[in-house]
Design brief:
Length: about 550
């Protein structure tokens, strides 16, 4: 009967006689709002990360007011429970609008408040809400002890609100561009802790003055019912740019593959470079420079410098414990192995169950992956912290070409949230800096093969020859990067270990990253599973 009554309520506009400010105290409203109406809305959102799981029910964990001068909106923290036995928390700010022509695709619930017909919508669609948040951050007091805490940097002043607009096609968050000068990122998936992106942004730019990431300008945090500081939004400067390094690399690599025929390159006669060999640009043979182009090597070297500078800054703190460098120890080893063995077993099952999606070289590599599972497992368990002398620091954690902006002559590093599959606690574990380098190297590998897959009709060589060229390009780009990176961090006395240790950690982190990637590729685009499988093959046969 209760279910039938709820369905009847859903079919008609919900009527509320009280004032908007008291709406969330109304149990009938909460019951209807958290029902199928909200479920249908959330399932359609790009930022919703539970699409591969079955939603069981939604609870309102807590709510808070986002307000100024009598203008009130509500921020909701929703707990979404899944049939599989886990849950996510999401943030949605809500507003009440009466204009029937407004936000037609973003209406959550039709409602009549004190006789006024209207709709509950996601407040981020409303310019008045966006303006209010901007002004609250701009007017933040130095010490805020209220539940809803706004903060601004000293550099964010003497500004007035002019305009706001959506940044564009984001997946996991919603970003607003203000005055064409600032970006406010609303975190949609919420964790019971400070978001790593907020922590790293403040540390890098406010504490350490690192220039090659967007400067921290402000934030919105709440103190939840467990007295935990939870990040809701992060304000940063907007860096004028030419797009991200992923698109840049795809463009450059397309030219490199076209050069095979345009310059009549004989692949078999090219000088090879070994995996993890370090090479200065002036050591690269003229034939390779002629084929790949000096400009791409110069860009890779610049990216290596910026990556090294980021790590040097992250390894330079000796007061704030959350950023001070640590040595390897037994606790870290246990944490790492448990995590990786669990992930590896999961990916083994995925490959076994989805072999039917593969063919050709990808099928051969998948068979090798399964046949050599004990070799891979041994490489994972072969981590012995007592043999490692380097340091662990806070790292980017999800470092790839898509997290790097390209400007006229430089690179800016973005998005320090960490690996999407990891818990918030795991994202803050101090790691060897080479974990980020490995992430970027996997991204190089991806970009090279993505160029082949995306432009296959443009290249006249047989696939086998193109794959051979791909591996040569990868070896040279990583060698030039590694030479510059190691030189920079060593000159700054950041301890990344001796040479054999560095190679061990790089191989370990590359293996970890490639194993992680297999799951996504087999589930989303099986043709690309060849890329992580090839990466794993390179490591286990090196």
């Amino acid at each position: 009967m209760a279910e039938k009554a709820l369905k009847n309520k859903l079919q008609s506009t919900f009527e509320f006689e009280g004032v908007w400010e008291e709406l969330l105290d109304n149990k009938d409203f909460i019951e209807i709002f958290l029902s199928e109406v909200l479920e249908d809305y959330i399932l359609k959102q790009r930022w919703y990360g539970g699409k591969s799981s079955k939603l069981k029910y939604i609870e309102l964990s807590e709510y808070f007011r986002i307000q100024q001068h009598g203008e009130v909106y509500f921020g909701l923290l929703l707990e979404i429970d899944f049939v599989e036995g886990f849950y996510h928390h999401y943030f949605i700010p809500i507003a009440f609008v009466t204009d029937a022509s407004f936000a037609k695709s973003d209406r959550i619930l039709p409602i009549k408040i004190q006789g006024q017909q209207g709709y509950i919508i996601d407040a981020i669609n409303l310019e008045a809400f966006r303006k209010l948040v901007f002004e609250r951050i701009l007017g933040a007091v130095p010490v805020d002890r209220t539940k809803v805490q706004y903060h601004r940097s000293e550099s964010f002043c003497d500004v007035v609100y002019e305009s706001s607009r959506f940044m564009g096609m984001e997946q996991s968050n919603t970003s607003i561009i203000y005055n064409d000068r600032f970006v406010l990122k609303f975190f949609r998936r919420i964790f019971a802790d400070k978001n790593p992106d907020y922590e790293m942004s403040r540390f890098l730019t406010e504490v350490k003055d690192f220039k090659n990431t967007p400067a921290y300008k402000g934030s919105l945090n709440i103190i939840d019912s467990d007295n935990v500081n939870v990040t809701i939004a992060l304000m940063q400067e907007l860096v004028p740019n030419k797009g991200d390094a992923w698109d840049y690399m795809l463009h450059e690599l397309h030219e490199v593959f076209l050069n095979l025929d345009a310059k009549h390159i004989d692949i078999n006669s090219l000088q090879r470079v070994g995996m993890f060999e370090r090479m200065n640009i002036n050591q690269v043979s003229p034939e390779i420079i002629d084929w790949i182009g000096l400009n791409l090597f110069v860009k890779v070297r610049k990216l290596a410098v910026r990556t090294a500078e980021m790590h040097i800054v992250l390894g330079s703190e000796f007061e704030d414990n959350s950023f001070t460098p640590n040595h390897f120890n037994g606790d870290y080893e246990v944490w790492l192995k448990n995590r990786l063995i669990h992930q590896f077993q999961n990916r083994l099952n995925t490959v076994e169950n989805q072999m039917h999606k593969l063919d050709g070289m990808a099928m051969d590599l998948a068979k090798e992956f399964l046949e050599k599972k004990n070799v891979i497992r041994k490489k994972i368990t072969n981590f012995d912290w007592t043999k490692l002398k380097g340091e662990r620091i806070r790292v980017h954690g999800d470092y790839h070409l898509g997290q790097i902006l390209v400007t006229e002559d430089d690179f800016y590093i973005l998005d320090f949230e960490g690996e999407p599959e990891s818990t918030i606690r795991d994202r803050k574990v101090k790691q060897p800096p080479l974990k980020d380098v490995a992430g970027l190297f996997r991204s190089f590998h991806y970009a090279i093969y993505a160029s082949l897959f995306n432009n296959s009709e443009a290249y006249k060589r047989p696939q086998e020859e193109l794959f051979e060229a791909a591996e040569i390009i990868y070896a040279y780009l990583t060698s030039v990067f590694l030479e510059t990176y190691v030189e920079q961090v060593q000159n700054a006395n950041l301890n990344i270990g001796y040479n054999q240790e560095r190679i061990f950690i790089l191989k370990y982190c590359l293996l970890e990253k490639a194993v992680y990637e297999i799951g996504y590729e087999l589930n989303s685009r099986p043709r690309w599973a060849l890329i992580p499988l090839k990466g794993i093959s390179n490591i286990i046969n090196h």
